[in-house]
Amino acid sequence: MAMTASSGVAQGAGVPAGQAERSPFLRTTELLAPYRPAKPLITLSLGEPQHPVPDFVGPVLAKHIADFGRYPLAKGIEPFRRAAANWLSTRFQLPRPVDPESEILVLSGSREGLFFAAITAARYVGPRKGRPAILMPNPFYPAYGAGARAAGCEPIYLPTTLANGFLPDLDALDDATLARTVAMFIASPANPQGSVASRDYFIRLKKLADRHGFMILSDECYSEIYTRQPPGSALECAGPDFTNVVAFQSLSKRSNLPGMRVGFAAGDRKFLSAFHELRNVAAPQVPVPLQHVGVAAYSDEAHVEENRRLYRIKFDLADQILGSRYGYARPAGGFCVWLDVSERGGDEAVAVKLYRDAGVRVIPGSYLSRPQNDGFNPGAGYIRLALVSDSESTAEALHRLVEILD
Known about the structure:
Order of helices and strands: HEHHEHEHEHEHEEHEHHHEHEEEH
Number of strands: 12
Distance between the termini: 38 Å
Largest sheet: 7 strands, mixed
Strand order of the largest sheet: 2-8-7-6-5-3-4
Helix content: 25-40%
């Protein structure tokens, strides 16, 4: 069945007044505020990496400390852009090497880049046939929805469910919706389900973008967290000029540097030129010493492999402790676990019970998503766990979860 514009929910219909604009983490805090945990708290709600910061960070910062006295260029220093371009060309099977001069922009973390990219896309693609729209998976990263609203576009939420492999169903999109689309956000590996888009999926999406003239904004910040096969990139299927495709990367997950706020955007040079113009006057600049840390990080894979090893241990524990309970399946990428608790009282009730009785903090899936026009919320009935703590705490939390819910 084709998905029409009415399948999207522009203002969060079915969500209590004001909730569509609010942080899912703040909503979770408010949900749990009346309760006190019966056991020492283990937090699995926030996807903040807890593995050690790489050893090279301190020495690199010390070496470049004087550069905090300079205003950074919005596009990024040349060594950073070159290191990011070299890493992309090494890590992925690109149609050609990325040009560090015109096809890379430094970002203050991928979140601000994704937000400002939506605003740029609305200006860049030109007039649409009807109200401009931005497509996004549902559940989704909140920056996507915020960017769509700031761009004056209708956010159209594409349900990602077990039935469609937790990726937007491209076959469900009708021509009328695509004709007014300015951009589509795609996350691979997905947050929260950990699904990974195949090469064929990216090829099909690229054909739609070229046919209808919209941008693909590919959020790939979890691409280096996997336990088996390395995920691909939308850039691999973007053609020789990366037309209509921009990928977003970050050091937060790859290098355990969430507080450093360094990432980059890469791809379509014409779009990135317009993106740079907007960011040059509106977006946060990235301090030069932090970009030098980025150079070191993108030039080293040993700390990234160690990071993956630690996550593998925790997913091995999840395999053993959870088994097939709650629809658990080891995700293809990322560090989140997406559990179906619909038969145990629903996501909010279970989040309260786990916090109150087990001292385990998780996030209700309905807070990460929005209802479709028919009232269906793809995140309802699920909880998200981020396996970011050490392996001992993770095992303890999973054992408590099973004890309480079984």
